[in-house]
Each structure stands twice: as structure tokens, then as C-alpha cells.
Write a sequence for this structure.
């Protein structure tokens, strides 16, 4: 059974381990990690979260959008067809989900209501548990 309970739905997308995650876990500077691994969603997500937490909304938005688009590329390379579950429980998926959540936070902060609604829906459709896990629900 898939995450959504639809036996005919797509299998969950499970991204490969992002090598940048270990560097970030080891305390490396997210800006250096993003420069060394520009395709890393988790590095861009961390930069976005840091900027948003510091009140740098536009910078956070830009980082989040970069992480989001890098994530879409990675998802597609791993069989995602534009829909279907991307479970939070699979650790390598968290870079994408964190970037998407950061994009949502930034959209809310700048009053971009269409983007805020779209990102909230996308996050919930990816994994209904993700918003709560990310402090959004």
C-alpha cells in the first residue's frame, strides 16, 4: 500500500543519500557546502532556514527556491513523474522537503499567497506527516 492508501498510485520516491548531509551534520558552513555541492538540496535548505530564522526573508526565499529547483531535478532523475509520495521518513528526502517548507515560509512572509498555497499543498501531498515534522502543521 502506498503512503496515500491508493494501491494504483505511484511508489514513493526515495532519493539517494546526499553527500553534503554528512558535511552539514559535521558542522560545516552551509555556504561552503552549497558551493562545493551546488546540486545539494539539503545545503540550500539549510541556507534558506538560516536566512529566514535571521529575518532575511528575501535571501531565504532565494535560497529556498534554489533548493526547491535542485530538488525537482533530483526527484525527476530518480523516477518521480511530477506527483506521488516523497516520504519524510526517508532521510535523503528531507533536503527536498525542507527546501519546500522554507519556500512556503518565505512565500507566507512576503505575502505571495498563491505560492504559499501551492507549496503547502505540495508538501502535504508529498507526505502528510511532513508539515508537522517541519513545524508547519
Amino acid at each position: 500500500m502506498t503512503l496515500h492508501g491508493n494501491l494504483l498510485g505511484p511508489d514513493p520516491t526515495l532519493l539517494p543519500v546526499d553527500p553534503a548531509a554528512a558535511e552539514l551534520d559535521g558542522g560545516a558552513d552551509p555556504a561552503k557546502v552549497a558551493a562545493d555541492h551546488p546540486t545539494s538540496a539539503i545545503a540550500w535548505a539549510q541556507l534558506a532556514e538560516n536566512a529566514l530564522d535571521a529575518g532575511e526573508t528575501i535571501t531565504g526565499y532565494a535560497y529556498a527556491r534554489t533548493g526547491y529547483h535542485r530538488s525537482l531535478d533530483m526527484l525527476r532523475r530518480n523516477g518521480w513523474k511530477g506527483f506521488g509520495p516523497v516520504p519524510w521518513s526517508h532521510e535523503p528526502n528531507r533536503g527536498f522537503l525542507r527546501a519546500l517548507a522554507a519556500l512556503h515560509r518565505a512565500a507566507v512572509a512576503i505575502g505571495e499567497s498563491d505560492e504559499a498555497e501551492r507549496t503547502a499543498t505540495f508538501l502535504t501531498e508529498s507526505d502528510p506527516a511532513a508539515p508537522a515534522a517541519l513545524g508547519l502543521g
Observations:
- The first helix runs from residue 19 to 25.
